[in-house]
Amino acid sequence: MRHQLIVPMALLCAANATAKQQPKKQEVPVIIIMADQLKYDLPGSLIPNIRKIREDGVTFTRTYCAAPLCVPSRGSFFTGLYPNHTGSFINGWGEEDEHYSKVKTGTSNLYETMSKRWDSHHVGKQHFFTVDQIDKDPNSKTTWLTDADYKKWLKERKIPAPGGKIFKANAPELVSGSNTTLKSYSIPSFKEYAPGLENFTDHYYADNAIKVIDHADPRKPLLLNTMFLAPHPPYSIPEPYFSKVKPTDFTLPDNVGVWYKGQSPLQMYSLTGFLGARYSRQQWAEIWPKYLGLVCLLDDEVGRIIDALKKQGLYDQALIIFTADHGEMLGSHSLWQKMCMYEESVHVPMIIKFPKSYTSKIKECDTPVSLIDVWPTLIDFLEIREAAPTDGTSLMPAIRGENTSRQNIFIQYDGNGSYGSNQRCVISGNFKLFIDTFKEELFYELYDLAKDPMETDNLAFHPESAPKVKEMFQILKKHMNDTGDLLKFSDNSYEQFLKNYPQTKAESKE
Q1: Confidence band (pLDDT; 50, 70, 90) for 405?
Q2: What pTM was estimated for this model as a whole?
Q3: N vs C: which end of the chain shows fewer Cβ within 10 Å?
Q4: Percent of the chain at pLDDT above 90?
Q5: Which residues, other chains included, contact 310 with Cβ-Cβ below 8 Å and sequence gap of 6+?
Q6: CATH top-level class for 29-412?
Q7: Within 389-462, where are the H helices?
């Protein structure tokens, strides 16, 4: 009997030793890296460091933001809630509608929940606006280094910030859904940033993120949210990145510089169309290398953070999430920036790299998911007990190779600096329906993303697609009702749209 017990005891000791090597879920370092305005379909040759994270992680090829705008997208990302539940709809630059930009008081979020156990740091752009002013709370357990710190750092050194008047132009903006004002917003002009890389926004953020990694509290696992600005305009770019990308390094998509007959003319009331439609395809071909130069800069800064994690022995231990708050039209559909429902604007990259001790069952997931699913995924994987309920769905079942419970993706837009020009979108499988508004006017667009990935043929004008439009409209309307949406659509709005825009099937294909 004594000899028979030797093997089981040896196996038990080996299992115990292995268990000691596996970090507890609530001891896992969490690194979130978010780009701003990053397209999902970038040439892999331009992003070797991001590609390396992808090789080590799980890629979600159909990830969508909850809102194609910085502030509401981040409000939803860090709470796992739809904008209708956070109360954050717009960026809020206009004083009259500023209250629409802030996450409601007392709303549970990633920072406050995780900082109870993690050594929590925020480095970079701070567009998680809350009524409670989370980044200014003296009792916050998160250390905040933001764009305000960058501007102060530049001022002390008497160095100008990237950007300036030549990077802006006037555009119309609807205020409070009722009256139009004139605002100044970024245009795709470009010029070298003479003070150089060492004084550039994202280099400063990466420098400070590395300091956090190098001096992390050994008593707690690290939580580091690094929020980069790139490749968001202005295209005030330091060398070598200003001249780095050549026309031969990329292929200009066919829908760049093209305004399709089936797309909403209401987009001309906002900066996306008002500014974007003035550039030709040839001009966009000259602009693209500058945007991609900023992408290369972003990738190198991400690489510096990865190197710092490896140097400190944290890379293999860490759960790393790489994503973006929204995309960039960059001339597709003759539009500029985001603020619309086309794929280039709402479809974002997303990679989750797990600790080396965890083996995922998949390397890629092509099921549509939302950025509001990230926080519930962290809650699930890290076994966080004190988190509040979310609207999102954990992605862990998909990562384990199981079916996910998510059926539809919902996206909304309610204006940029002020409230108005609302849009609503639902994605079900390969179909996408969205409704564009300006005051009392509505415009429907329906696309089959499998057959028409560049969204060139608006099926809402095809009589045979009417049942699909109505089916998806009911799904969207139920979501709007369930979430207390401020926007309301009448049941006959589709019929009214067809009456207002009597286009034929043949015309919609031109």
Answers
A1: confident
A2: 0.93
A3: N
A4: 91
A5: none
A6: alpha beta
A7: 396-399
